[in-house]
Amino acid sequence: MNNLTLKSLVVAAGFAIASLSANAAVTVSADLNPSADAEHYSYSSDIVGTSFSDYISLSFLGSRDLVGSLSGTSTKNITFTSFNLLAADQTTVLSYGFLGAAGPRLAFGGLESINGLGNYFVHIAGTSVGSASYNGTLSLTSLPVPEPETYGMMLAGLGLMGFMVRRRKIG
Known about the structure:
It is built from 2 helices and 8 strands, in the order αββββββββα. It is α+β, with helices and mostly antiparallel strands. Strands 1, 2, 3, 4, 5, 6, 7 and 8 form an 8-stranded antiparallel β-sheet that branches.
């Protein structure tokens, strides 16, 4: 009987320790925007334990701006400790998210994939008391490329400014 009780206590302690950091995997939607110059995703996760640390993978071609939002719901309390953009190695922080009272936000401009896919991760971490979940959105949009007319107008303006400066020096 003592042996059975000891085994039950060990198994119960194992489940208790495992539940402290266990949580369901993050569910990420397919691209919600069919256009080639932007991607929009939604994500969500249910938190089972008292702490969570999730990574959302982002891969794309070309240059992009990233804007992300995050919100959580809890029966008692949920606190976000990280909402950051990481490089492909999952350790180099490229941008720290804002964890303000109005809700966590992340914005980063000029993500670049030079040769092949650009691989990045959004890291979401925090703690929870009781059952909780979080959700949010990520939007990757193309950086605007100036039209040739824009460069022509800029050069014409610089030429006029140079002409005015030269004219004043002569006069």
